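Give me the fold.
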Amino acid sequence: MTRRWTPWLFLVGVLLGLGVVIDSSAQTSKDEAGQPPSPPQKPPAPPPSPSEYNVQVKKALTTLMHQIESAAVKVVDYDALKAHYFAPKGGGGLSSEEVLNSMPIYQKGMETLKGRRFKHALSNRIVTKEEFAKYLDNGLIALTWVERSADLQDKFKYFRLIPSTYNLVEGLRPVLEDDLTVLYDFHTKDMLFLEWKTVSALFVHLPRVLATVLVDQHYQLKDLAEQWRGNNDARYALDALLQGDGIFSQVEYGFVNRKVEVTNFEVAEQIAAELEERMRLYHQQYAIPMSVLAHYFYPKLYGVRFFEYGRRYYPQERLFSVYSRLPNSMEKVIHPEKHFNKRHKDNPTRLIFSAEVENALAERKWRLVERTVLGEFFFQLLLMDAIGQKDALNAASGWDGDLMAIYARSETERGLVLFSVWDSIEDASEAYAGFQKSFLGFYRGTKYQVLHNSTELLHLSLADTEVKLKRKGRYVLVLQGFPGLLTAQLEAAFN
């Protein structure tokens, strides 16, 4: 993608390049478009003055940044490095000595910034463009490592967020190739350096990935992810935390030498502006659906907001220990006061399906394929293409809990049960209205009959299945893909 960068946009653009976490255990398988969420309102309480610890960190990092700059000149031959990057590879690639001479200084800087030490030596290797293509083709780079890429693609197709012929990984390839420079595989513990990237991009992105490595060495990302198996909402929260932590750490790491007090700087606001532009350009140039771009980019922004909020109001030690008491929902990342401020604590409501629902499905040979919690973030995606990004964010903000399950009776017969609860009747009504418009848009161009359409019930009849969207008080129920009699029985069970 070609564009003219101002110095500031260049810096923010570089900071936004993603150091993606790889899940090596995965298997194959009323606003304009482009408007990202506006920065959150500032809490009413004034921020405390910087702590003595923060002052010491800033002083230490200033010294370290000077060391990095001088050391880079002494130990790294940039011309030689660039020659290695672009010269034909006879099986060699970049030597660790050439690429990683300054790594100890970066590690020390990150330890100073975070107040934690690396427990283990880092394992590094160079990845060729051919190897990178295999990662993409095999679905090993999780677009969000919350779930397998193939499963994510199926879900996007099922909810009609992408056309049935759209390949999610292939469609996002231009974004991935633009953004990725250094990757971290939390199963093999390898830092993977993409050989065709420029040297400057490599060194700029190191702090972000090192922040993720440091978290892994202290909290074991594999275990954290496993802790929330079956709850995609909570795993999205972890994903957003890692991305936000890495980007915000990189901002703090890089700005300290420019004498910018990060605790008084609107990092998320600047990133939101750049994000809007990037999404618009990718959407126009590569026809990538906005919901797909939002799925890829929004966790970064939400994570940065979370750490910006925490860094402004809480000491670094408490902020790093967020991984020992993880937010159990993206709601707490999107609205960080719900995690940090005891007066705003708001745990999601846990929903279950009654035995009557489960028995009705089992008696008719419908087997469970997947059951999970989607969360506020995924509800944004579900509504985005139908009602616009701004309205989707507003509609999803009243989310209080959900449970989604997909059932199958054959290879071609699939049914969806999506049960959600909202903070108020008004929030539920707003979400219902969004789904109402969304469903009518889903089936545009197909043969269906509207049996009922009101402010509390939408009932559509398709060839041999039905769709029901129903609101009762604070609850919204979606039934899709089941025969008429079973749909009626399930609806009665939820009443």
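The chain is about 55% helix and 15% strand.
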